[in-house]
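User: Good morning. I'm curious how iron/sulfur cluster would be positioned relative to this chain. Could you predict the structure with it bound?
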Amino acid sequence: MINSKQKLVIIGNGMAGINTVEQILKLTDKYEITVLGSEPHPNYNRIMLSYVLEGSKTIDDIILNDLQWYADQGITLYTGKMVKSIDGEHKKIHTEDGLEIDYDVALIATGSQSFILPIPGKELPGVIGFRDIADCSAMLEAAKTYKKAAVIGGGLLGLEAAKGLVNLGMDVTVVHLMEDLMERQLDREASAMLKAELERQGIKFAMQMQTAEVYGQDRVQGLRFSDGSELEADLVVMAVGIKPNIQVAKESGMETNRGIVVDDFMRTSMPDVYAVGECVEHRGICYGLVAPLFEQGSVIAKHLAGVDTEGYAGSVVSTKLKISGVDVFSAGEFITQPEHTAIVAKDEWKRTYKKILLRDNKIVGTVLFGDVSESASLQKYVRQQTEMTDEIYGQIMGTGCGNHGAKTSSVETMADDEIVCGCNGVTKKAIVEAINENGLTTVDEIKACTGATRSCGGCKPVVEQILQYVLGDSFKTSAKQGICGCTTLSRDEIVEAIKTKGLTTTREVMNVLGWHNDEGCSKCRPALNYYLGMINPDTYENEGDSRFVNERLHANIQKDGTFTVVPRMYGGVTTPEDLKKIADVSLKYNVKVVKVTGGQRLDLIGVRKEDLPKVWEELDMPSGYAYAKSLRTVKTCVGSQFCRFGTQDSMGMGEVLERKFERLDFPAKFKLAVNGCPRNCAESCTKDIGIVGNDGGWEIFIGGNGGIKARLADSLCKVKTDAELIDIVGAVMQFYRETGQYLERTSEWVERIGLEEVQKAVVNDTANRQALVERVEFALQQVEDPWKKIIHDEDTRKNLFEAVTPSIV
Ligand SMILES: Cc1cc2nc3c(=O)[nH]c(=O)nc-3n(C[C@H](O)[C@H](O)[C@H](O)COP(=O)(O)OP(=O)(O)OC[C@H]3O[C@@H](n4cnc5c(N)ncnc54)[C@H](O)[C@@H]3O)c2cc1C
Ligand SMILES: NC(=O)c1ccc[n+]([C@@H]2O[C@H](COP(=O)([O-])OP(=O)(O)OC[C@H]3O[C@@H](n4cnc5c(N)ncnc54)[C@H](O)[C@@H]3O)[C@@H](O)[C@H]2O)c1
Ligand code: SF4
Ligand code: FES
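Assistant: Good morning! Here's the predicted structure, ligand included:
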């Protein structure tokens, strides 16, 4: 069959490019879409990196479109591919590694990069920007070792980075060039209030300082300023603005200035090549916030779908700082000029400040600090340059200056066409209709249905208020959180329904249980995959596509797009033969680093995806499952075989347990430790199950965690024999498998269900323990080493690992 679809190629797999694709897919199916992105990830919410740094979100939480989404939409995605140029004459796109892709229409969405000050020392290790997952991971990593951070730039990004680093326990100083923080968004008054509040939250400031140099030997040690003074720092984050990525356009001969120059339909100077996002310069402006970029995308989508549209005429931007406890909002003009009439209210006790600027009685700008409840209305008034009236004055300012209590409820009075979610252009009317028509009861459901709250999340409180307003009295009772925005059902309700209704696939679960979003999302799909496998271990076919990339490829992806290989070393014990194989393979495949892990095994870091099957074949060792929600390591001490204090054979028992329970799936990763005596050299107290030998037998501990939310394990029971120990370990594992929520570590699980409940189920009630043991044994009969299978499966090797044009990753 001849493919009549036109080839649309997107260069850049970021927020603007993929938002445009989403909008195109809603309007037409006439394009065969290919996306090329230089980062090794699917499209994620860059905005939320501030929350990842701060610790309130994980990388998994911020994935906007997971790999399954691309597959479901028939999109071919290349990650880790840097585009070099576009050959407009032959309509071909060239990547830096020599790939050539034909296009009919191309869209450049390459975004920006951090602007790095051109000063001596900028290349020193420990000096970074804050733009992507790699930067964020580098900061998280640095905070584990280093204590003093300097953030250069007191703009939105710098302040959010500084707050994140303070939360990570660092001593943070923001170095700012100007007299006022966020001088591009705030007036002096608001800026001073902001600084005072951030100082209260632990951030230090060095104002009006120009950095002349970064100094240090092998790593940054500090900053030297133009006045000769110095600031010690072992991490430096540059947040002094962004630089549009225009290299592809420049290399291809398109008109560029600061950004790629486009017309009102986002067309570049090269025929059939469009551009969107931060890389673009439209009417002399390069935008750095998502709302305008999504508006640009909407124009492109309509234009490419053949839907009538006006051109893009530019945007009025508004900003909101994402630091908890600091509410700041600004839109339009913010510095009072002689031609303005200013309405100002400052309440020093409540620490609030409001300023509205009028020109010829029209609202042209605003700055809010402390109370931003009227931000949605003010944003609309500024955008529409609305005439100030008594009514609007009363709504915003209350009946008397500073009398906030006299305001009417803003959600109630909000006009239907008022935009509630600025990032995604969602109005109050759209939200109210979605709630009424689809019976929505949570903000997550509104997000899945309308897109509101999907980007910066700043509109969440207003969306919540609208939900409360529409649902009235039923709000509290109905506001039950489902496992994600696609459903209101809890984990227990889903598991029960899978059992009673005999559901067998994720799709069936979603259909039968009435998911709001047909495709599910990156939260519910892996969870359903786990629950189905746990309930039907013998019949359930693991749906690899529903798993995160590491679990699908059975390897841990690294920030440079390569992978790690961790072979099993039972109980942390290896042999010269195995070490030799590891050394040979590491040399042959140019492994970048061989690292001894905290779990007593070796991590081969920097293996190319296409080499993974060959590496595993040549190692001929079992997979250590270092990537999986499964049994990871069993850490052991030397124990009675060699140690003078050892009362039990910890190495022997560690090996027995690891061989028995390896490959078993759990709701989250699972770690064990076995010690030969209470000196506890292998640190049982921070493991999911920790075992400590004593004179009369063993003591079993559960629920320990040494990670970000550290928790000491609880003593579950003491046992006399090895057989009893193995039974109880198996029973705890199965009880956790059956009652744990997906991604819930045992440390959280024990707290949620209570230690006594676990003791009742696996220690006191011996019949129940026996039943759990039988079920875990049954599950264990079904497991197999993924790599043993993959290396003999030509199709998987070719399609998943070796294909030159993979559809995903
Ligand atoms: C920490 C942080 C917080 C933010 N907070 C907010 C906020 O609260 N509100 C807000 O509105 N905005 C915020 N922003 C800005 C917002 O994230 C950006 O405006 C938005 O992501 C820009 O989208 P884009 O698609 O143009 O660029 P990007 O999202 O950067 O995507 C561009 C992609 O193209 C890739 N690429 C570049 N060159 C090539 C090439 N040659 N070949 C292939 N791929 C290439 C890049 O690797 C990147 O993945 C924040 C940004 C950061 C970093
Ligand atoms: N909440 C949000 O909306 C949010 C959050 C983070 C990032 N962003 C976006 O990300 C982009 C990058 O943010 P940004 O804060 O880096 O850019 P920015 O341009 O908004 O701010 C940079 C700040 O650095 C200061 N600066 C410049 N040179 C300096 C120097 N040599 N020493 C000290 N300070 C110096 C400037 O005075 C300015 O205040 C922007 O487009 C921003 O809108 C938005
Ligand atoms: S825990 Fe006890 S047995 Fe094990 S190595 Fe330490 S001292 Fe020896
Ligand atoms: S305003 Fe940013 S997600 Fe709604």
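Residues 722-739 form the longest helix (18 residues). The longest strand covers residues 352-359.
Let me know if you'd like a different ligand tried.
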